[in-house]
Specification:
about 625 residues; alpha/beta; Glucose Oxidase, domain 3; seven-stranded mixed sheet; five-stranded antiparallel sheet; flavin adenine dinucleotide binding; FAD/NAD-bd_sf
Amino acid sequence: MTKFLAFLAVVAAVFPTALTAPTFQIVKRDQLLASYDYVIVGGGPAGLTVANRLSENPKVKVLVIEGGDFAGDDPNVQIPRRVNEAYVDYHYKEADGEWMSEPLEAMGNRTHMVYAGKAVGGGTAINGMLFDRGAKSDYDAWKALGNPGWGWNDLLPYFKKSETFTPPTEEQRRELGIEYNPAAHGTSGPIKSSYQKFLYPSVKYNFAALNELGIKTSKDGADGNALGVFWSPNALDNVNGVRSYAVNYHEQAESRANYHILVNNYVHKVDFSKKGSQYTATGVTFSAGADAPVNSIKATKEVILAAGALQTPKVLQLSGLGGKSVLNAHGIKQLIDLPGVGFNLQDHPTAFTAAIMTNPPAGGSLEDLNDPALNATAWETYVNEKSGPYTIANGNTLGFIPLPQITDAKTKLAYLKNIFLQRPETYLPSFARSERTLINGYLAQKTALAGLLATKKSAALEVAGGVGGGALSVQKSFSRGTVHIRSANPFDNPKIDFRAFSNPLDMDLAVIAVRFFRKLQATKTLQAFGSIVVFPGPEVETDEQIREWVRATAWPSFAHMSGTAAMLARTLGGVVDSKLKVYGTTNLRVVDASIMPLVPSTHIQSTVYAVAEKAADIIKAAQ
């Protein structure tokens, strides 16, 4: 008991309101209205953004239904350095432990943890807090795939609308070279983005090493030029040293009488009525658990699915929207034939490298926290000053590098040639090889990806981490995974098959990435510190040995799941149109990462906010 009281004292010192009663606008089932204008499924970044913006109109009644609960002032969520603990506490799990993927055939049949936030705020409550954007070309590719209004210039106002940006200090600009473009940033959005008061000075050598290889420093990745190496803000309230996440949108709306949020409840399915060939969403069916009463709630205007790239396709399939083979396998009557539901899963498969410095640069790194004395000092600094290493989740320096800059011209041309030599259906999931719409859609995506990779306008690889290595993340993946229901039971998590590296083009790019990493460590800048690559070690030398190392060690996901209800023409396997309305319905929309036809080269949280801000305006225009 003494230890517990001591812990509460520390928490209270860091978060003075942590032990007070919550003031959230939560409703219980018996407090629900008979109907709402809008019922939003999912209280993550997309759902809370849309709910906030729609409820700005006092004449509109909005309900959010979320499967998780509020994290409140939980230090594991609030303190940036505790992202791993936050994940443990606030993620979806299987009944017997972690939520695991299906066996990865191209990765030795390994399984991998599925990273998805189960809390109000969704993944933004547990993520690494990077608040970057993709390059202009990433979003222009969405538009070119047949989605008017979804290019970079269309989205930029919405990126800015979500953000309140705090510039770097003059000292940070002078000592670390952090620059920014004021015109690219917002000044009054719910999400605070900033650079920590404390940053490790040694990271500047990573910039110098990449510069030595001809990789330029971008002034500000937020202005559409997220290429080369650059500093990125975090989703961080720098005054208080805490995470800024989607709950900030909720906090703006919570005092409104027309905004309700129901937590710890799961939506089973969307309810429909039918007139002619069109289905109208009339509401949703939901409950608090497998043994709890089942309820229904009416939506007089729209139902909006914002449950994320893994749960949104599950709800669609349980509602009878999807491919016949998927639905028939679980006895679900098909209402609308949409084979693209749960198809097109994309992410950024990532290999992790390491180098040791025999003469490390001064300034330290996050690894210093492994030393008990240094860790204690860092914690004291955080409690007293809201600064120091505990304000750093995973860092602020990013390298997003185009294909022509990570390999020679001959290798690049051979890689691009192999893209066009492939038949589009060869490496798709077996069920998709007989679906002409899915094949045609994938062919359109492949063509778009090839165009992006051929230039210096879009990144093929992310190089993240400090001078001792880090993540090598494939940004333009040709593999496509699936999200399909496990059963007709709404409390069963869906089956996630990332299918990472199922297309050998991705493995070829991973080999190029490892060779680039070794070249980076061989620069004069890093050799001055005695850099020695240890992972993969020198025994991993041939292309096939590198492939085997990737198969055995890489992650299939960087928690950037997207694409499973793609915004594409229905003839291309799309699920929603450019207004985010589900094909075959009059008033069902999807607003989350699942609508992205191609995952952009970035960490996707700020993109999800921008998508949702734009979606809110689309929905308002239809009122």
